[in-house]
Amino acid sequence: MTGWEPHAVTTAELVDPAPVAALAALFDNGLPAPRPGDDLPPLWHWVALPRWPVSSGLGPDGHPARGTFLPPIDLPRRMFAGGEVLLRRAPKIGETVTRRSIVDSVTEKSGRSGKLVIVVVRTVLSGVDGSPLVEERQDIIYREAGATASEAAPGEPAELAGAPFRRGDDGWGFATDPALLMRFSAATANAHRIHYDWPYATRTEGYPGLVVHGPLMSLALAEVLRLDSPGARVTRLAHRNLAPLFCGQPAHLRTEPRPGGATLTLVGDAGPRTSLEADYHEEGTSHA
């Protein structure tokens, strides 16, 4: 990484109502769509503040080319590993905020799957008066390529799943299909090809199918709080992606209440995929 140095990127941005409406339509879970002037729901800043790089600035995997804001790491697989979000005050939809992001650390390690690099990015969203609204840490992992998928890999789901949230006797189910992944990629300006390009995902990166976005899984868990605890005032969310979920695989959203919050887990057939630790209190009550 000779010649590369971390540097802060600061921009003034609109909390855009259009992608917020797009995410509400995508979730289609019966909750009213947030409107201009409303509080932005937890984690929805990932959608409301998309960054669209120019087409010539994309790398071969569809992500922005490395070596500018992110370090020039030569490992091919990029994974959204997790992070933590502190919510000081919810941004208002239609509000202009200041976003400041910087690479906080770059750590090289060796794991069971070979060499990997962990990049930590810190972002602060502030109001026009300079007061912090959202403080965030994101952990990004770069890894070596996996083995090429075999001919026995499952085929793409043929049928669209419809509304992704399914209420059941034991909680919520979460269904995915290629259209859902494509629409979420568009709403978040995410051109990572593993989410929509079947030949690239299976032949180049060695996955058995399209990969469900890590942020989509975390957002689905955060949405359960809005569905089941509409009066919850969320102050902290710590999310961790444990394993990939592939398009069309069944998943369940489980909630375990605890004092001052809850632990939520997205579970697939092969076990937990994503976890979310949420701290919150009910509106009108004090902190525990």
From TrEMBL:
GO terms for molecular function: (3R)-hydroxyacyl-[acyl-carrier-protein] dehydratase activity. InterPro entries: FAS1-like_DH_region, HotDog_dom_sf, Mitochondrial_HTD2. It comes from the Bacteria. Residues 276-288 have a biased composition (Basic and acidic residues). Residues 257-288 are annotated as: Disordered. Residues 57-135 form the FAS1-like dehydratase domain. Pfam families: FAS1_DH_region. Coiled coil: none annotated. This is MaoC family dehydratase N-terminal domain-containing protein. It comes from Amycolatopsis dendrobii. The lineage of its organism: Bacteria, Bacillati, Actinomycetota, Actinomycetes, Pseudonocardiales.
